[in-house]
Amino acid sequence: MACHIDDVKAGQEYIYLRATCMPETRQNAQPYDVWILANKTTGLKLGFSKLQRGHRLDRKLIQTFTEVSFLDCVTECMVTPRCKSVNYFKGANYCEINYENKATAETRYMDNAGWVYSEKEHWPKELAGSCSNSTCEINQTCKHKRYSEDKFFKCVLSDCGIPDKKGIDLSSIKREDAIGIHRRIHASCSDGYSQSGSGRLNCQSNGEWKYDIIRTVLQNIALEKSAKQSSTKSDHNAAYAVDGNRGTNFLVHRCTHTADGDRYPWWSVDLQAVYYITFVRILNRGKDKYGDVSFRLKDVTVTVGLTESDISTPCGFFAGPGTASQLVVIDCPASTQGKYVKISKTTEALTLCEVDVFGVPV
Description:
single chain; mainly beta; Hepatocyte Growth Factor; Complement Module, domain 1; 4 domains; 1 helix; 2% helix; calcium; fucose binding; metal ion binding; metal-binding
């Protein structure tokens, strides 16, 4: 086997070497990298056995670096308190440091050819040099100082942290988004909020997020509005679904119920104005002395309409079956307009403990 050294980093106790090796016994063999940890006092050791090739942690970036070696990439993580892992693409000498690792973000750990994934805890602290004993805060990174009379490092802001403002949903974050200084991420509004603005959050040099997203709390526009249903069992009338009572014990609290023989039951509400309907919530029946019959909430269709005679514009569908006291959220397509909202199903009676409708005026 023939090898040549690509990278060397020396510390007080260790020397780190990266070599490219070519097997001599196989034809058409491909070169591969070997990382070796050499202890100055005890000799060579294989230190990087936990590298995970062909893998990458996605969309958990603090910062990225170009034209750096793998060891420099690891060092950037070692000197950044928030960093937990790194991704490295050798073909472009490209480094990504992450604020989570495989254990805390398992669904973001994926196969990705050409990448190497490594976790901070697998590396000796000595690699950070004088920064190994730094007192930097979680949102800072340690920088070595070449000349200093008091200490050999300084702490500078590294990121703005994870945005935690109420109403912000980070599920739309993109692969290139990062929380580092002068970086940005994409966000949207959580359920119960309407959104305007670009949806971008920009990390400023002072370590604070600048939010280019305006969040407006949505009100339940169905509350105490006029409601109807296809039939009624006993006194469990349609108005009980919009009375504001959020109890789910059918016998104690007030929930709607269509007649048992109604095979095509429906319930509707008149919003008294035209809205862009954002989403509809259904509070399902809970347990009572009859046991748990919450599974009856299934195959539910939600439609909207501009007139009472034509409530047929699709909003969404809940396959179910529901669970006890479940709050079912059904998102409508963008720009769904309606003055009326209808909930319907087939084969069994329809029971609703509360219905919330959220939207903004047209």
